[in-house]
From TrEMBL:
Name of this protein: Methyltransferase
Region (Disordered) location: 225-253, 269-304
InterPro entries per record: SAM-dependent_MTases_sf
Membrane-spanning parts: none
Lineage: Bacteria, Pseudomonadati, Planctomycetota, Phycisphaerae, Phycisphaerales
Amino acid sequence: MEEPHVASPKTARCRICDEATSPSFDALVLGRHRVGYHTCGSCGFLQTDEPFWLKEAYAAPIASVDVGLLSRNAANADATSLLIDRLLPQAERFLDHGGGYGIFTRMMRDRGYAFLHHDPHCENLFAPQHGCQPQAFDRAFDLTTAWEVFEHLVDPVATAREVLGFSRVLLFSTVLQPAAEIRSAEDWWYLVPETGQHVGFYTVDALHRLAERCGACLRSDGTNLHTLSREPLPRDPFASAPPTPRGPGRRSLLDADFADAMTRLRLRQAEPIGAATKPRQITRPSREAPSAKRLPGAGRSAPA
């Protein structure tokens, strides 16, 4: 019988600034591994124990509870189009790093932005003709995106340095920690220990330390969108813009679908090992969920 993992009480070094961390809480990862979460006393970065469970967590590279995959790609396409048109109007070379199924690459190419796709860990379903190995190119990309990648990284400094080695600008998303102290896995939805894939969580200070270690310039919207660039950007890439209106009387079902997916996952994890899977009646959560804001973007006239 497999011995359960015990959360480590040891002091670990911060994966961002290499300063000491202290234990904050522990959580049950993948429904069976007791894992410690540690906070950096210098930059506030929150990280798990050394993640021995990743092979298990990535048996499916896209988590089953990621019901926001499509709406997030649509919002990211809007934000990226807007940023390129405002700050990089002459840019021609783009890459989506860690691009998953290729949805974002396909959306951006449909808008006329010549994005390529890179993700060695996931099948490129929607842009298979546009995959690439970025290091093989003899000229830097103007912009590289990395959507919901950095919270998955065991060595975010190395990844940021690598990307900035072949790209002028890195635009990425990761949700920043809330203002209130995180004392347990129940305090913040973004931890999702049930999936085992999120292992590092950022503060603005942590992003500044990341930029310093990469010799880069940081811009952040203070919530979940950020840029690292070799040279300072001419102006704020996240200047406010009016949201795209939804249809009258409609609200997103994203939050309700996420809650439903998490309920199903927890029920599966509670099943005894080897037990037959039986259909369950799920009590669906309320559909009264706040709408997600989206930034408008201007597509280019001729799709590639």
